User: Fold Solute carrier family 40 member from Saprolegnia diclina.
Amino acid sequence: MPLDTTAVACAVVGTVSLGLGTLGTMCGSHVTDTPYCPPVRRGLGPLLTLVGYGSLLPVLACVVAIIRDTSKAKQETIALLSSKRQYTVYRQGEVVATRLCVYVYVAHFVSSFNNCVWEALVPMLLAQLGVNSSPTLIPLTTVSVSILFLPLLSQFVDATDRWQLLRTTTFVWPLIMSLSAVSLLGAGSSRADHPMRSASLFVAYVLAAIAHCVRTLHALALQRDWVVELALLSQTPLESWNVVLKQVDLAARLLAPLMIAMTMSIPLDDAAPWRIWLGVFFVLQSMLLPLQWATLRDIYRFAPSLGHKTLHTTAEVSSARYISLWRSYTQHPVCLAGVATGLLATTVLRDGHPRPWLNRHLSPSWDAGDVGGVAMGMIGTLLFPWLLACVHPVEKLGLASMWWYLASLLPVGLISVGTFQTRGVWLLLTIALLQTARVCADLALVQIMQEWVASTRRGAINGVQLTLKAICGLILLLLERDEVDLGLLVGCSMGASALAAIAYTRCE
Assistant:
């Protein structure tokens, strides 16, 4: 079997990772006094070990997939006399079934992990640089830029070659993030009262918001366009792809803060440790970027249907086109389902995290490493296929999840107005149920958007849907204040959830 691009990338990235890990273990910890060890500053050894051996995880996943496909190529994979036949994907006589799936998951993990690391790193960098800004300023900037540009950018999913789009977004995202980091460093090196500090912060926030749009465009193209074609090619159900991709997102959301916490816990001989933290991020990103590019390239090569795309539309950046995209979305059958899911963004959970005003009332804290959110999200992904087998089609499961979410939110409203001693614990339990229902509702909507939207409009319709969700999130973000009563905000969340359930019911 000829080596694919990912195999070469695994060899290169794996060698560099092992080299960094060995350097950190042997030289950084001074296990050996060999003269071949370069001088390593105290604290850098554990960091090199963490980055080196940690980056081997996606490499090992790709290597296992390659070995498994190679072993399948040497034996019969289809039982000719059996009624239960195993469908195997071939390309020019070469078995690629395992690699086709694993490469998608690895590429998505690298993208999600780098994004989560950056989101966790920015507040810490601002604190180290002495930049005092509102904690809602970054999400406000991100949401505002997304509302303005995401619908227009999403056109390129329909008007551009699939490989060209993902290749571009793969390299543009780290480039823009690097420019944002440089702007943050410029703000940190300026005096607090100097105009250059405010200008640098403004540029850094805007660049970070643009990078968020690019990363959203990348995820949209992969999850809601490529995955549909790959599911048709491999004859596997869409829910199996969506569930694993959601689990990959949850794993990245758990591992990224954990890595940042481990990095910060290492004592460093440096007056400005934020430089080393930033360096670790860029080294890790530079090591995993070739692997991400290689996996996407091989996926495109393994699936000929991805290249057989007829471009029926052209991308146009104008206010008239912006209005036209929204008009097309409102006339689409998935509009009410999208509105219902967008309304859930105005409730007590924001992408699996309790709102800051709710988290202050939880005991113990839900965000202790985000273990609670990830655990209940994982349970939701495990329940979704079973629930879909019991409540099908997926539209009915989405409807049931909406009412399940509302029913789980009612105890939160009752508990929030109480003053009993164990209120925090009961809030924690009800939010766990909310998280499970929210994951099922999100997975149902993703599959509905995959099945109901034509291949020539996947980018435009899904882009407007994500923008609608951002608008709904912006509404509650503007209402979040320390002095706002908890019962009032929970009441608004219950009202939004009720409207979401009614809108979804009307859609059915």
User: Anything to note?
Assistant: The chain has a mean pLDDT of 81. The chain has two domains: 1-72+90-313, 318-507. The longest strand covers residues 90-91.
